[in-house]
Amino acid sequence: MDPNVINAATAIASAVATIAAAVAAIGSWRAAGRANRTAQQVAAIEQRREHAERTPRLTITCAAQHGDGALLTIAFAGPDQLHELRIRVTIRDDKPRGGSLLAGGPTVEEVAAQIWGPYQFDPPIDGADTHRTVPQVVLLNGDNRPLQMRKTPPPPWVTSESHWRQDYEDKPVRLELHCEHDGYEPWILRRDIPVRPVPENYPGLPT
Question: For the purposes of burial, counting CB atoms within 10 Å of the CB of 80, is it exposed (0-12), middle (13-18) or buried (19 or more)?
Answer without folding.
Answer: exposed
